[in-house]
Structure formats: C-alpha cells, structure tokens
Design a protein that fits this description.
heterodimer, A: mainly beta, three-stranded antiparallel sheet, B: five-stranded parallel sheet, 14 helices
C-alpha cells in the first residue's frame, strides 16, 4: 500500500492500495514509513 | 501496478518455463512443497503448476492459518461468543470454520454478537467504542500476523483499555516443518519458503532444513513469476548438488527479518509447551500464548473456556492434505459434501486453503486433463 499521510504521534498512517480502491489506517511501528512510500501491510500492520 | 505487473509478464513466464525444462533431469521425479497457503492460492489462481515440467510435482504444506485451527479451539471461541455482554471479533475466514456444533457464523445467527474485523486494531477500536462490553479478539496466524496482535495489545495496555482481551492461537512455522520432515510417509526434494513469515523472522530459522535434512529452501514472493523462479532456483540447487536457504524475495525479505517485530513479539508472547494443529495433532513448542506481562489481556485466563479436544470428522481428510500426503481432489468429500459454501474441513474455508484454492481454480484444469 502507498502511505498517504503519517500520524507519527500515534504510530499510524493512512494508506491506500496501489489501484486506489481501498484506504486503511495502518500500524507503522515496525517500519520506517514515509509519505509517498510503499509498505507491505498484513492484518493492519506494515511489516516491510 | 508496481511490483505486480512485472511479476505477471507472460513472456517472462514462458522464458522461465524453458529454463525449468532445461533444469530437470529426465526420469527423475521432483516433489517440492510450497509451505505457505498464499503460495498455494497463487499457484492455482495463475495456473503455475501447468507451466511446470511433468516430473515436477508441487505438494501443499501446512502454512494456512485458518486450516490448522483445531475444532476444540473453534468450540472455545463459540463458547466465549455466547457469553453475556461479549462482543466476539475475528477475521472473516474464521466465521465459517466448523467447530463440533457449527461455526461462529451459526453462533451469530443464534444471537451472539460476533463481528468480523480486518485487523486486531479494528477489534481494539470496537472495545474503546463499547466500554461497557467485553471485547474478545480471536487471534490466529503465523509469525506474519502475530506482530499485529502484539502491537495491538501493547497499544491496549498503554491506553489502559481494560475491556479487551485476546484468545491467542498464533502458531510458528518451524515446528510443523520439522514434524513433516520427520514423517516417514512424505519424501520431499525441496521447499518454497514462506515469504511473508520470513519478512518477520528472516531466513535464518529455515536453515535447519538444509543443515539437518539436506533439502534446499528458496524463500519466495507470491506472484506467479516469483514462484516459477523459486522452483527453478530449487531445481538448480539440486542439479548442482547445493543445499542452502536462498532468498528469491529479496525485494521484501531481509536476511535478519524485521527486528522490531521480533522484539515486540518476544515481549507480548511466550511459547506454549505444545499446541494442537488440525489434522497434525499436538506439536511441541509450536504455539504462542500471551506472556505473563500481558496476562490481563488473555481471554483464556479471564474467562472459562471448555478447552476440550475434539476429533476431526471422519470424512474429512484435511490432515492428509495439510501434510501433503494426498491432493485436495483425492479427499473423499472434496467438491461433493465439502464445498466452500458448506465446508466440512478447514482447507475448504480459507482462500489460502489447498482445497478451496483447488476448488475455485485448479479443478477446471484437472477436469480438462482428465477429459
């Protein structure tokens, strides 16, 4: 998923699938996420 | 879509197929196990097995989290769901997994407040929105999903949420693989390693397969070209007399795994002395429970659960499918009494289950071959 917006205080990010079909709030505590970057999300958590 | 389209290129697929044909030794039969249910799904969805040489056979492994949940644990979940005041949350697949007297979906139809969630974080949100209700999350999955549960429990603890707890059914991949390798009725030549589990745990934990059992492992991505290339890498290892853990999925899997995920898992979870797997029986040190530091969030400690072991239905051969001993279509009830709409066995429930994947995609190719 692509990171749209970071909420670093809460360790969350708003992410969107690459086809733009779905948006999801994702836990980002396990990765170094940046706005515009891609993350691999599993069960609501970015693991890579 | 980046990282997707280029791994579904038919021209590249044909080129890898040619290399596969050149890599096999005529007259030799190769059996390769794909450990992960995600691979099983992709193999059938994209017809990867149709592109393999005739003497390369894929065997489906035990890496589908829904498939390995035993009936007794489902019964525990249903009992908790029926408790007054409880909101019971789980992933969508779990709703249709049969226990001994029905499914969580049946419990919902009978009045239990059972809700599907996409993540543990969703379950925590429900708990915060319903402070007068007890919210239980039925956690399942391998090391890929366990960090998500761990992070959510850490968040619940930090935020002082007291009406949230978790039934921990998380399992680990190494013990069942070791059990399979010790099994006398299964001969395997190599393994397609679970890409997303290895994203978390890294490549090192699979090192025992070449070191102790002399079988090659290639950690693989999930697109059709990933899987084809991984099979080629396995065949090349065999052909060259090599035996090691290779990483085809380098764009995602670091050798050491995700250290932050491993750290949070070690804080929140402890290893159970044994855990029951559907069809495989009890396997030592294969399941996780909540650590003592998170005991307040352990639904099994906060509530009475039946905890009864229930034998699988006699007609169901999920155990043999999960061990790779039989193919889905060789099960007595496949596609007749057991279908995705009315599953008897767990392998027919999840899209990652070998039976469901084969029912949804593979059987058409099989029917063509038989005709």
């Amino acid at each position: 998923m692509r990171v749209l917006q970071l909420d670093e205080d809460r360790g969350l990010a708003l992410c969107e699938t690459e086809d733009g079909q779905r948006r999801e709030t994702v836990e980002i505590a396990l990765v170094d996420a940046r706005a515009g970057g891609l993350v691999l999300v599993h069960a609501g958590t970015a693991i890579a | 879509v980046k990282y997707v389209d280029e791994y579904r290129d038919p021209e590249l697929g044909r080129a890898v197929r040619a290399e596969l044909l050149a890599a096999v030794e005529p007259g030799r039969h190769y059996k390769v196990m794909e450990v992960c249910g995600g691979h099983t799904h992709s193999i059938y969805k994209y017809g990867v097995d149709d592109l393999l040489p005739d003497n390369v056979e894929l065997v489906h492994g035990p890496g589908c989290p829904v498939c390995v949940i035993p009936m007794g644990r489902v019964d525990d979940g249903i009992a908790l769901a029926h408790e007054p005041g409880v909101i019971f949350t789980c992933f969508g697949d779990m709703l249709r997994v049969p226990g001994s007297h029905g499914t969580l979906l049946d419990a919902k139809a009978q009045g239990a407040d059972v809700r599907m969630v996409y993540s543990p974080l969703d379950a925590l949100r429900i708990a915060k929105a319903n402070p007068d209700r007890e919210v239980i999350f039925f956690a399942i999955g391998f090391e890929t999903t366990a960090p998500s549960t761990a992070l959510t429990l850490k968040r619940a603890k930090a935020e002082g949420v007291t009406n949230f707890s978790c039934v921990c059914n998380h399992v680990t991949i190494v013990p069942p693989l070791r059990a399979l390798l010790e099994s006398p009725d299964l001969r395997l030549d190599g393994f397609i390693g679970p890409g997303h589990v290895c994203t978390v745990v890294g490549a090192r934990p699979l090192g025992f397969i070449p070191a102790d059992y002399g079988r090659p492992v290639v950690i693989s991505g999930f697109e059709p070209l990933d899987i084809l290339q991984s099979i080629l890498m396995i065949l090349r290892q065999i052909g060259e007399g090599r035996c090691e853990v290779e990483n085809q999925y380098k764009r995602v899997v670091p050798f050491e795994g995700n250290l932050r995920a491993l750290e949070v898992m070690s804080e929140v979870f402890a290893v159970r002395p044994h855990f029951e797997w559907r069809g495989l029986g009890f396997i030592s040190y294969s399941g996780l429970r909540l650590s003592d530091a998170y005991a307040d969030f352990d639904a099994e400690r906060r509530h009475e659960v039946p905890g009864v072991r229930v034998a699988d239905p006699k007609a169901c051969q999920c155990g043999e499918v999960l061990k790779g001993v039989i193919k889905p279509w060789e099960c007595k009830v496949f596609g007749t009494a057991c279908t995705p709409e009315h599953a008897i066995g767990t392998c027919m429930v999840s899209p990652e289950g070998a039976c469901a994947a084969y029912y949804n995609y593979g059987r058409f190719a099989h029917d063509r071959a038989v005709v």
